[in-house]
Amino acid sequence: MKQKIFDAHLHVGYFPRKKRHGEEIYYYSPARLMRYIRWAGIDEFIFSSTNVCWGCPASTMHSEALELKRLAGLKAHALFWLSLDYYKTDPELSQIPDFYEGIKLHGGESAWIRHPGMLRRLLSSAADRNWVVQIHTGKDWENSCSAYYPYCIKFPSVHFDLAHGWPLDEALSALKNSDNIWIDLSFVEYRTAEQLISACPDKVMFGSDFPAPLRFHEVSGTMYLRKYISRLGELGGPKLLEKNARDFLSKRGKR
Q1: Are 170 and 192 in contact (CB under 8 A)?
Q2: Contact indicator for 195, 173 with CB cutoff of 8 Å
Q3: How confident is the model at residue 19 (pLDDT cuts 50, 70, 90)?
Q4: Which of 14, 25, 31, 95 gives a 20 to 30 Å CA spacing to 62?
C-alpha cells in the first residue's frame, strides 16, 4: 500500500519565484497549487495564504481558502494568516470564519514578539476556539523558538507548530520539554532533520513550505517536492510523513 503524504506547511497565493537572473511575483492559485499537490503525490495538507503580505483583504483570502477546500475537500486544512493590521480591526478574532482550523503567525510579516499583550490575547482566543497555531521561526532572536516557547507553555491546550525549528538547540529543547509543541521540517537541512527526528520522532512533521522553495531554486516544483518527500521519508517513515500531522490536528473539534 502506498504511503500517504501529509504536508503540514503549504501556501496558496502570490509569491516570488526565481527566473533566470532575478525573480518575479507569481500567483499560485488554488487550482495551480492543487496540480502540484497531485503531481507530487501529496494526499492531505495544511495551508495558509501568502496574500496577507500583499495587502489583500481578508475576504479575498477567505474565498481563496474556500476554493482550495472545494477542490481538495476534507484533505485541505486552512489556517488564517493573522497579521497585526488585521488583529487591530478584529481583536476578538470573531470575524474569522469557522472553516479555519487555526492561525498562522509570521514575525517577518508582523513583529508579534514586540506586542506581548496582543500575542497573549490572540493565543487565548486560539485556546477558546480550539485552534492550532503555526508559527514561523528563524535565525534572529525575535523569530526564534525560545522567543515563542514561553507563550506555548502558557497555553498548554493549544497545539503549536514551531515551523522550521530555528535554532536547532532551542527546537530540541522545546520539543523535549513540552507536550503541545510540534515542528515541521520545511526548509530544514538534512542533518538538522536527522537530529530532530532522532530526538523526537513523534513530534516532527513533514512540511515543504511550497511554493517558497521556487523563490530560491529554479527547478521543477514537482521534482523538488518528490525528492524532498523521498529524502525525509527515509528518515522518519510513516510517523513523519503522515501520523504526526494528524496528531497535531487531533484536538480539533473537541471541546
Answers
A1: no
A2: no
A3: confident
A4: 25
